[in-house]
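Re: duplicated header lines in exported structure tokens

Our pipeline writes sequence and tokens for each protein into one text file. With two proteins the header for the second block appears twice in some exports. Here is an export where it did not happen, for reference. First protein block:
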Amino acid sequence: MNTALLLMQVAAALGAGDLHTIQYSGSGFTYVFGQSYQPGGAYPKFRLTYTRAIDFDARASREQVTRTQFEEPPRGGGNQPLYREVTGATLSTDATPWGAGTVTLTPHGFVNAALANAATVRTVRTGGRTLTVVSFTGHRGFKVEGYVNAQHLIERIDTWVQNPILGETRIETTYADYRPVAGITFPMRIVQRQGGFPTLELTVSDVRPNATVDIPAPAPAVPARAEGHRIADGVWYLTGAPEPNSQLVEMRDYAVLIESSISEARAAANIAEARRLVPGKPIRYHVNSHHHADHAGGLRAYVSAGITLVTHEMNRRLYERPGLATAGTVWVKDRYVLDDGSRRLEIHHVPNGHAANLLMSYLPRERLLMVTDVFNDFGEPRPNDPPPGLVSPYYAALGERIRALKLDVERIAPSHGRDVVPAERLRKALEGTVQSPLRGRSGSL
């Protein structure tokens, strides 16, 4: 098969030759990747309105997404439960980590990239039909494959990326319901899956070829850093960037780092800061609160440093496959205690809707609770703050667990937040009613 001829036929069918920019909008559903309720489960689902602008010549893209709550009761992360809409934008250029690859995963961007690279073709039989698969190595060495039908339209584009938790992960984007629009042919149905579960279901309602688009340069990446400040004798709160924050506990002969990181760079910064604050004592344990991407992305740095992982037993299958767990990993079911006579650190499972495997850590002598996601304190209103009279079901679950365990909590060190806060903040948040449409339950500590 003549590869160049095939690609020119695809470009002609799509109208890619004279397409320099595009803007399209639609609605549907988005799913927050890496924020499933339990390991190996589907990602939480939200209602979506969506607009994307692409500059093919500059290989730049801007996606604007507005999310509202869909699941009831809420299950998983993604900042839910959302009590009001959340709007955010994602910029992709050659300067961002995945870079212009996001443009390559669109039909018109794919054929342009295939023409510019040494593409190869093969045929496959699927669903009783023969499709032509166009393969090439794209931006930054990523392998990309596009499935072309008899009408020379691209039905699916696959690529594979390395994920710090899942290992090699396939991104599969399917395109359907192509229609002619102002000299081009464009898919009105777009579905994307990552790691075997959907992340986007979009019905396109508006397409504007060669529209004037304004795609700003992305903000420069913030260097990873960790800065510890003492919150009790032998206990530090490690703030820095990127979030979440962590905690460090000094025992008699060793140290414990609590809460993982969104990246290996932040994890390495945590380790370096811990060694600075507690010189001469090894970091023996690292407590991983749960499997979400922003809390487990840095696990490999702890494993590489020979630090024993303490995590919930639900994570065994997820962590063992990519080598994030070792023979010495401590798999927690309900409770695990570190007590060397000088200090007692209790690690407790928290049944809740955010993550089925969530662990919190408690220092009885200091009356200090270290927890993430089911209690945050940013000092400013957020979309998952319930209106007056309602209680977040995630906060309610934490309050119930504290009462059931009879923990005497004076202060809370939330991993998402600015600093340690008095437990009174949680008590006040629980002074609501049971009228929440998200089935939250009231209570008090």
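Second protein block, exported in the same file:
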Amino acid sequence: MSQILETQKLDIQKIREEFPILHQQVNGKPLVYFDNAATNQKPQRVIDALVHYYQHDNANINRGVHTLAERATAAYENTRKSVQKFINANEVEEVIFTKGTSESINLVASSWGRKFLNQGDEVLISAMEHHSNIVPWQMICEERGATLRVMPINQAGEIIVEALDDLITERTKMVAFNHASNSLGTINPIELIIKKAHAVGAKVLVDGAQATAHLPIDVKALNVDFYAFSAHKMYGPTGTGVLYGKRSLLEKMPPYQGGGEMIKEVSFSKTTYNDIPYKFEAGTPGIANVIALNEAINFINELGKANIAAHELNLLNYATNALNAIDGANIIGTAKDKVSVASFVVEGIHHFDLGMWMDAKGVAVRTGHHCTQPLMDFYGIEGTTRASFAVYNTVEEIDIFIDALNSIIKRFNK
């Protein structure tokens, strides 16, 4: 486990005041929200941005010349500029808005895959992928006659990098893997994998859903071809995501969906398509959600990712030490470098039962396979209980969580 970081100390209680949902009771207990890897909570500024749009600027974008439409369009495109800076993309046109990480990956698998994958080609993913980064590649490989291969992992939940030279070959056309695992918290060596993939001419897609709120993202420095993430895992609204793609690739890819805004000219005999990014943004988007994403980015930037990461790592180390001290509790995923995810099993207690008992004590954790069934099969388990931490969580909340866990284990062992 990484050492506790020393950075600028955040005023966590002040930060918590920005999140109205945290100040409630669940089943008569103060809410302890440890399901941040599924979705984190939203600061008031994000909620206010949603309300402001619907109260003052509600209009469709890019299609009207009246004042409301122009204000809505400007706010929407301003978020695109913010995302460009947030991930250090070369240009704003390389930022595509989607419904979320899943749609971003499906867009690449469908559009890029139909254009560039052929019989005998290979797509390489890792053994710790979310279903959203497995199933789209299975579908396009079956359609195109390509083969899906898998990077193995060790018991700690780390990619076995020594196996990559045999797996990444001239047949490899796409390498798709997560920046950080949603089930294990593992931070993958993305720079190394990108270099190895590019050395054989393969393209790379990184699923950044679990990384974007925690880790510095510089797509230019990484030289990554595609990077996907979701707003709702970085303090923004649900139903909105981002796909970054290099212009040179996006311009060669056919549209993912047909409809309004993704066209230049339509006739019954022929349609010409719009320029990027609009070529991939058919129909009316989640305008309010995209606008509110800008406030989520501002929230993260104002706190500073290094400060957020340091606080979350302190929480992870504290929780890890406490879980390791409990007889019968076993952490699944012990990689050296992790984001703030602690998945565990408890001997003799099903994870669903544990989750329900935790909820009775006001503690929200995740239970199940976390959309990573092949990963659970690797460990020989049905699922885990997952506690995941955000910047607004505290050591005191971990103490409540650990006390609740101990009392539940004691009850089951009577």
